[in-house]
Amino acid sequence: MFPLVAIATSLVPELIKLIAGDKTGQVASNVAKAVQKATDTDDPAAAKQKIDTDAAAKSALQVKLAQIAVPAAQVQNEEADRQRVAQLEELREHLEDTQGARAAILGLASQGSFIAWVAPAVSFLVMIGFYLLLAILIVKFTDPKLSEGLEKNQLITIFASERWSPRSRPL
């Protein structure tokens, strides 16, 4: 069956996408049957030989394959449209949820609720913690005793990366 499908896809390359998108395998089965019927054989070599030598059989097969391809493409396009509609509906619901949350926060903020101030307060505390940690690290590493070997380690790292860098290797 698959060699017959390969013969058909050499005549009508658009079938590849349709066969790949067909979950039931019906398109591939129909294509194989059409090749078998047009060539009067199920042997792939004999079928290829007949299509290569008989122009009437080749054109009849192309017409039959096109008749198979059009409905299959329509089915796949309808499925893709259904998926897009479902995605659009999901995005619409998500947008409504977001708008509802914004409206709720605006309502709480206009009433002066404590809940409305939680997110900004947490953000402010995280920012202050980051700056405190940064200040501690700067003060700690500016002590000459602690950073004494730091320059030496940096130089070793630089030289090691130069030695093993792909750009520094001879061709």
Unreliable stretches, pLDDT < 50, 5 or more residues? none
**Topology as a string of helices (H) and strands (E):** HHHHHHH
Task: State the helix count.
Answer: 7
Query: Oligomer, anyone?
Result: single chain
Q: Which structural class do you get from the secondary structure elements?
A: mainly alpha
Chain-averaged pLDDT = 82
Gross morphology is: elongated
The largest β sheet comes out as:
none
> Radius of gyration over alpha carbons?
35 Å
Strand tally: 0
- The rounded distance between the terminal residues' Cα atoms is 51 Å
The percentage of residues in β strands lies in under 5%
- State the helicity in percent bands: over 70%
**What is the domain total for the residues?**
2
How do the helices and strands line up, and which of them pair or pack?
Layout: H1 2-11, H2 15-21, H3 26-39, H4 44-53, H5 55-111, H6 118-141, H7 150-164
Helix pairs in contact: 1-3, 3-5, 4-5
Please provide a brief summary of the model.
With 171 residues, the chain is an all-alpha fold. It has helices at residues 2-11, 15-21, 26-39, 44-53, 55-111, 118-141, 150-164.
Descriptive report:
The chain is mainly alpha-helical. The chain has helices at 2-11, 15-21, 26-39, 44-53, 55-111, 118-141, 150-164. It folds into 2 domains: 2-97, no CATH class; 117-168, no CATH class. The longest helix is centred in the middle third of the chain and has 57 residues, at 55-111. The chain is elongated and about 90 Å long.
